[in-house]
Write a structure and sequence with these properties.
The chain has about 70 residues and is α+β, with helices and mostly antiparallel strands. It is built from three helices and four strands.
Length: about 70
């Protein structure tokens, strides 16, 4: 997984609309997105600007999973 960011909220919404259903990924509380490498080319083909932060860390990946788990009541 690769960590990316978008320059603004409108671009982020456009990118998420495109990515949903095509690629799996996670959005972190920091605003960073974890996407597979193949998503980078697809975003570029759609002329959606993004910045690559680097390969996602194990902590980012587990944090994204842990934060998305339903809360216990």
């Amino acid at each position: 997984m690769i960590t990316i960011t978008f320059p603004d909220r409108e671009t982020e919404k456009r990118a998420l609309g495109f990515l949903l259903g095509r690629f799996s990924g996670r959005v972190l509380k920091t605003g960073e997105h974890l996407v597979p490498e193949a998503a980078l080319e697809a975003l570029a083909d759609q002329n959606i600007p993004f910045t690559v932060q680097g390969k996602s860390t194990y902590e980012q990946q587990t944090s994204a999973i842990r934060d998305s788990a339903p809360a216990s009541i």
